[in-house]
Structures are given as structure tokens and as C-alpha cells.
Amino acid sequence: MDIHRCRFVNYPASAINSIAFTHSTLASVSATRKYTQKNIQVRLAIGRANGDIEIWNPLNGAWHQELVIPGGQDRSVDGLVWVTDADEEMADGKIIHGKSRLFSIGYTSTITEWDLEKAKAKKHASGQHGDIWCLGVQPLPHKATAASNSNRKLVAGTVDGNLVLYSLEDDDLKFEKSLMRTPSKNVKFVSIDFQSRNVVVVGCSNGTICAYDIRNGTLLRQMTLGTDINGGSKNIIVWSVKCLPNGDIVSGDSTGQVCIWDGKTYTQAQRIQSHNQDVLCLSVSADGSKIVSGGMDRRTAIYEPIAGQAGRWTKVFHRRYHGHDVKAMASFEGKGMSVVVSGGSDSNPVVIPLRGAGREYHRTLSHLPQNATLQSAAKARLILSWWGNEVRIWHLLTPAQQLLQDPAASTNLRKNRKLVAKILVRGESSISSAAISEDGTLLAAATASDIKVFQLDLAGEQLQIRKVAFETLGRGASKIQISPDKQWISWVEDGSKVMAARVDSENHTVSRPSKLPRLRRQIPKNLLLSGLGSYDRNITQMAFSPDSRMLAVADLAGYMDTWVLRVPQEELPNGTSGKNDDDEDDANRSSDSESDEDDSNSSVEGPRWVRNPKAGLLPKLSAAPVVLSFSPTQQEEDDYSLLVITTLKQLFVFNPRHGSLSEWSRRNTYHKLPEQFRETRDLVKGAVWQGERVWVYGVSFLFMLDLSRDFDPEKDNLVSKRKSQGTKRKRQANESGAGGRMDKNSHGLGPQKVRIAQGPEGKGWEEVDAMIVDDGKSVASASGIEDNDDFEDEDEYVGELQRLREENGEVDGDEEGRKELVEGDKTAKWWHTYQFRPILGIVPVGNGQGDVPVEVALVERPLSGVDLPERYFAEGEWERR
Predict the structure, then answer these.
(1) Which segments carry the WD repeats (predicted)?
(2) Radius of gyration, CA atoms only, the chain
(3) Which single residue of 214, 375, 461, 520 could bond 592 by disulfide (Cβ 3.0 to 4.6 Å)?
């Protein structure tokens, strides 16, 4: 495979402003109830400065980014809260887990509820008050019942010192009343948390913490921080407040101090100077045994109670996991996990062990999306990328093989690629998905409210763009694809509805869209009414077959649906005429939210999509798919292989027209796959085919797997132990959902006394508590984001075969196998590298046939090339580790 290594995609990093879990802990769920915890839908929501909301599934440490709801112009998500109702018990004893609703604020006077099933905003509500700066949800009573769900409130603090109440009754969201307004002028309510069901604690911008009774708006007590003990500013801002299970209050403020307050007397019990700059966020463990703080000095600190001294705390250690301000964090405990997830201006979520602090490593997740915002028109050598409301099209001029033969290629690399077009999609919403045809003549871009289609004509060095008439009835899409023959456009509407429309290239029009009915699934009623409802029916993967005669989709639940293109008077494969394809066996039509009513596809004249007669035979996957891709050549008559890779690194090859698993996939089960592939932490992002070989990649790795040969697990496991020093070390299994356990001979995470230079010129020394850890074992490397990554020049081009000749130890196999791979022999069954990182996407820009290497563009997006906000330092202050 020949690689164009590029970093020209316009993909800026966006700061993380808010983080929230659906459940902070599962310990409160009654152990006497008959249910399985795996049915509880725990999700993490991350809000970014560009308005994006990301939904992550912890997956016991696998961390799958399931959904990204794009933001829009002048939008920002600055606060997130989940409202989870109490559980209910059905007559048959089954448990309906409490429904979860997601709300956000963005420094406006509006609260937004999000519909995760449709991946769009559901409701907006606002009142006669200023911008909302903080938002809290009223907790359930100790003995919660179904009636308790309708009585809960949202309490918001505003920039003008107003405390307001929003009602959630009858699954609605509406402004109810203003509880009170502070008499002091220029006082802002900055942070909020509930001490009990009816008492809310608010951190203010004037150095005070106030406790209010939300039943009548009465001020119960006002606590004053006073002045900075270090002689700093008198205007102290309480950036964060949290309440411990025993009622005590923890605050973090602009002086860098964490304060502990007695929850009964509302007096200050302790003041800890743990940060050099503002403490911006706090989190507490479910049992109240740990406090975590993050601040503007990039530190994350953990505190524990002092043995034998009730109400007294001490800082156990601190470390800098982030490269910029730590602005938000949230904790989760349950199902074998105990973690704190933090984020800030550097855009990378960091998973920190909570229960295993000091014994396990942290893990840095990627700032890049799970589904690459990258596509290509291989025949035209065009690359399509998008971000915000902008689409960019690049042209790679010279094939890779010609560059390798040119002695002066290194001086012409910049000239080999050219930006040929920028397209701005009008509207307030950002682009959710885009696609380009293989010949580069048709482009489609979708937002949450609209779909735009363009005709492209690359004449010489100029790209002519013409808009195509397309009536989408005012609805957008979360995912869109163009068939290889550019005759069809298919997209996902409202998260789970599959639509298709035919393209008339001559008249520059698109036909009226039609809905493709999905199979109805037998899903228990208690699951449909629990947690996030039908959210896991959201479609995340979509693929056309190379001949454009089959369409396949897959959702988060692991269900797959396939359709075939039926042409009038043409018999479908396998001897099926297709006349009654929509009248399928009732065994495949059980109760579900899907419906075949109003199917406009049945009235379409000419070629139309019908359900694959064998679609019901494809099994439900045990995990969400992250790759869905057809093989480039037919394996059997009229049947392409369908490759599916899940979040658990399961690899399946199906024969979709037969509704069966391929013989190769039956022989090569999960445990026979290469150990390096199974043990790699990061999830697979995509796949590129080269004949029978498939190149799969994640944010930090690139694997080649030969699907024409069986794997030998005994030989592969033996070979994997003979790895060179340049290859990544294998990590131990997760313990709490963050990194693996530390080696016995590694340094602990406890506080260590070290001496550092005092002042930028190194005058004098000072003993401080610091975090001592073996950086070579940092779990950041497992996610592809290392502190000391040495990235090569942006314009460097590396041919993959040439690189293999220059390197040693990157091929997992013996010397003979390495030689065979370099020389292009097909006897090497698998290979992998961690050289490229972080990978935004890999797309083909040439068609490799036979022994001709496939030509691809590999696009990296390291944070080293992203503009971050400037670091803040007080005058005369030198930042210390």
C-alpha cells in the first residue's frame, strides 16, 4: 500500500466545556430487584465550545463515541445535566429502568432538551431572566416512586443573580417561576449543586456560597470566603460547588483553593491551597471518600479524608493530565468501573481511575470523531473533508509510484496537492455528514435541517460547481452516502429512518425521496421504555455494494438491514422475483418502533429498493458495529462479502444475499485473530480494501488482514512476543475503566517530594509535592496521543513499501514473512504499525488491482498543529510542575 501522508484537513480542535454521566453511580439501585445491570444504559455526554454534543458509551473501558450531534453558528454547550427517573416494576416483575433526558445550556437564557433517538434538539424553554450560567437537577427522594418523576425541577442560576425554576412535568420543559433575586448588584450565580432534595447550594462571583430552599426561595445561609490568604484578589469567584453524601459542601474558587464546609452549621471546616490558579471544576466519589479537582494550572488533584480526624481532608497527589485548562469533569461508579472523566481547552477527554487511583494508569481519549469526516473520489483523485459549515475539496495530482521514481519528489510534495474548492453550506446548523461520488462529479452535504446536492466538473485546474434541485421536505440527515454508480443518494433521517432518492444527472435533479422499511425486531417492552428508549436503534454505519445493487445499514443495537435494487422485469438473485418482498414472513415482524406504514418507496416507478429476501437471517451482533464495508469483488455469484467489525474487535464476514456467515469467518473466530488486533485499546474507525486484503485503522494504529487465508493463533502469538523496541507495549487488562494496572516495579502515584528550580532562570530550589510516574508506560500512548510525539514535517510523503525497507521491527512476523510483505508477496497474513497518529481518516485515491499497491491518503490531525487559547499567567508568576 502506498500512502500519501497528509495533514491539510481543516479540522480544528474544540474545547470541552461540560461533561455529565447519565448515572453518577449504580450503587443506589436496589440489589433485591430482578434485573441485569447490563440493561442499564449508562452514557457520557460531552459538550464542546463549537456546540457539538458527543455521546459516549464507556463499555467497561472501551469508550465508544456513539453519536455526535453537530452544533451550529454561534453555539456553545457550557453546561450539561442528565435527568434520570426512578425505576418502575412491571406486573410480570421486570424492571423498567428510569428514563434519561439530556439538557444543556450555552450562556443564553434558554435551556434545550435533546432527542437522542433523532439526534436533534427536542425542546427549548426560556424565561424573563438573564443568561443561564449554571444548571442543576432536583434529586429523587430517598424512596423514589413513579410519581416522583413528574415532580422534579431544574434550577438555574443566571448572570444577573436570579435563581429560576423550570418544570419537567408530563415529559415537558417549561419555565415555572423565579425563586429569588439577589439584592446585590453585579452578582452572578456561577455554580450550583443540590445538598438535599429541597436545598440547593449556589456559588457566586462575590466570594460567597448561598444555600436556598427551593420550595419558597428562602435564603438559609450565606457563607463567605473572605479574601485570598495569599494576599490576592478580593473578588473571589466560586467556580464550582459539590455536595458530599453526608451533606458537607466542597467549593473551588479563583484563588486556587479547595474549601470544605460543614453541611449542618454551614461553617468553613478547612481550606486547602492545592492549585496555583483558579479551581474550575470538582467531582466527588459516590461514597464521599474522594474529591477530585481540576484547574487553570492544568492540575488534577485527588483528596482523601485524614484518618482519625473527622471532617479533615488532605491532598493525596496531583498530576497534569491535560495540556491546558481543566474546565469540566464528571465521575461514574458501577458495573466494575470507577472513573473520573475530565476535559478542557486541549479538547482531549481524559479518563482517570478513581477507586484505582495510585494503582492504575489514566487514559487519554482522542479529540477526533469516531466516524471520519473524510471521503474520497478515488477515480478523480479528490479528497473531501468537512468541518462546521464548510466543505473542502483537495486534488492529489501525481500518483504515488511516480513520486517514488522522482529523485526530486521531496521538493515537489507541496505542489502535489491542491485545494480546488471551498463550499459554505448556508444555515445555522453544522454539517453532520457529506459524501462524494467515486468519479468526483456529485457531492452531497447534510445538516440537521437540510440536504444540499452539487454537480462537480473538474476542468483543468478549475472546479465548476452547480447546485442540483433536491426537495427534502425540510428534513436533514445524520448520515449520507452516494452509490458508486452515482445513480442513488441514501441518507438516515431522524436517526433511524433510511431514505433513498434517484439522481438524474442529465437534468440535474433528484427524485422524490422514498423510505426504505427496516425489519421489525422483537424487543422487550421494558427495554423500549427504559433509559434512553430506542436510542440504540440509531444507524451509525451505511454502505453500498460496488455494483450499487445492494445497500446495508447497521445500528448501535447490532441489528443489520439490507436492501437490493429491483429493476422492473428483472428477476432477483437466488431465483426470487421480488414481487412480494414487502410481504415478509410475520416471524420477522414483531413489535418494534419501526413501521412500514406510508412507505412511499412502493409507488416509485422504475428501479426501486426492496428488502433483501434473506435480510431476516442476518444475526443481531453482540456489540455495536464500527465498520460496515463491502468487498471490492464478488465472492459468489451476485454476492459481495460484507465486512463487519464491532467495538469488541469482533470481525465477521457475511454473505448478505444468502443471509449467512462466510466459511472464512466460521473458521477464523475471535480468538484466532491476531493478538495485537484484539488487544489494541482504540476502536477501529474504518477499512480500505486491496483485493482480499483489508487495511483497518483506528486513531493510533493501522492493521493489514488477509481475509483469503486462515490465521494461525499459535504462531501469531509466538511471533508477537518477538517485537522490537519501537513497537508499542501491550497493556494489561482494564481494572476500573481507565488504564491497565501498573507494573509492580513502576513508580506509584502517591505524592513524592521533588526539588524544582524556582523561577524561570532557575534561581533557588523549592521542595514540592509532585507526581512521579514512568512516562514510558503512560496510557496516553495507548490512545495515540503521547506527550512526546515527534511528528514529522507536514509535507512529508512516505511510500509504505519504501518505509518498510527502511525500518526494522514494525512487521509482526519472522524475517522471512517481513521480506515477503516488503516484496509484495501475498503470503503475509497480517501486519500492523503504530507509526501514524492521531489518524483522522484513510481514504483511497487510486485503484490497486492485483499486485498493484492500493494508493491511499492518510490524514493525521495532531494537537500540535491546532491553535489553542493562550495560557494565562499572573504577572511575575512562573508556572511550576
Answers:
(1) 272-304
(2) 28
(3) 520
Q: Is the pLDDT higher at 758 or at 677?
A: 677
Please count the other Cβ atoms lying within 10 Å of the Cβ belonging to residue 20: 22
Q: What is the CATH number of the domain that holds 238?
A: 2.130.10.10
Q: Are residues 611 and 563 in contact, defined by beta-carbon separation less than 8 angstroms?
A: yes
Tell me the average pLDDT of the chain: 80
Check whether 763 has a pLDDT greater than 70: no
Query: What is the Cα–Cα distance from 795 to 570, expressed in whole angstroms?
Result: 51
66 in any annotated domain: yes
Is 49 a member of any domain? yes
Helices (H), 646-710: 663-667, 675-679
Q: Is the pLDDT of residue 396 over 80?
A: yes
| Omega before residue 838 within 30° of 0, cis | yes
Res 822 pLDDT > 60: no
For residues 418 and 416, give the distance between their C-alpha atoms in angstroms, rounded to a whole number. Answer: 7
Predicted confidence at residue 843, as pLDDT, reads: 95
Q: Grid coordinates representing 3?
A: 500512502
The pLDDT score that the predictor gives to residue 477 is 94
Cell numbers placing 542: 451505511
3-state secondary structure 463-520: EEEEEEECCCCCCCCCEEEECCCCCEEEEEECCCEEEEEEEECCCCEECCCEEECCCC
Average confidence (pLDDT) over 99-126: 94
- Does position 567 have pLDDT exceeding 50, yes or no? yes
Query: Hunting for cell 451505511 — which residue is that?
Result: 542
The model carries a pTM of 0.86
Place of cell 468553613: 268
Contact 20, 105 (CB under 8 A): no
Residue 338 lies in a domain: yes
Left if phi > 0, otherwise alpha if psi is -120 to 50, otherwise beta: which for 494? left
pLDDT for res 231: 57
Lowest mean pLDDT among 357-366, 432-441, 647-656: 357-366
Identify the pLDDT of residue 17.
95
Per the structure block, which three cell numbers stand in for 323? 495540556
* 256: pLDDT strictly greater than 90: yes
* Amino acid in position 197: R
CA end-to-end span of the chain: 44
At 391, give phi and psi (nearest 5°): -115, 135
The string of pLDDT tens digits covering residues 764-808 is 333 333 332 333 332 222 222 222 222 233 333 333 333 433 443
For residue 758, pLDDT beyond 50: no
Kindly report whether the peptide bond that precedes residue 183 is cis, defined as omega within 30 degrees of 0. Answer: no
* Whole-angstrom distance, CA of residue 564 vs CA of residue 493: 20
The 3-state secondary structure of 419-450 reads: EEEEEECCCCECEEEEEECCCCCEEEEEECCC
At residue 730, does pLDDT exceed 60? Answer: no
**Cβ(832)–Cβ(707) below 8 Å:** no
Taking the C-alpha atoms of residue 506 and residue 769, their distance in angstroms, rounded to an integer, is 72
Cα(835)–Cα(3) distance, integer angstroms: 12
* E strand or H helix that includes residue 55: strand 53-57
3-class DSSP state of 636: strand
Q: How confident is the model at residue 183 (pLDDT cuts 50, 70, 90)?
A: confident
DSSP H helical ranges for 823-855 = none
What residues contact 550, with CB distance under 8 A and at least 6 apart? 544, 562, 563, 564, 565, 612, 630, 640, 656, 657
What is the pLDDT confidence band of residue 406, given thresholds at 50, 70 and 90?
low
Distances (CA, A) of 666 to 552, 561, 562, 671, 672: 21, 21, 21, 12, 11
- Characterise 460 by phi-psi region: left (phi > 0), alpha (psi -120 to 50), beta (else): left
**Reduced to 3 states, what is the DSSP secondary structure of residue 668?**
coil
The total number of structural domains that make up the chain: 2
616: phi then psi, degrees, rounded to nearest 5:
-70, -10
Give the C-alpha separation, 212 to 199, whole Å.
Answer: 6
Q: Which domain holds residue 757?
A: 751-782
Cell of 509: 435533479
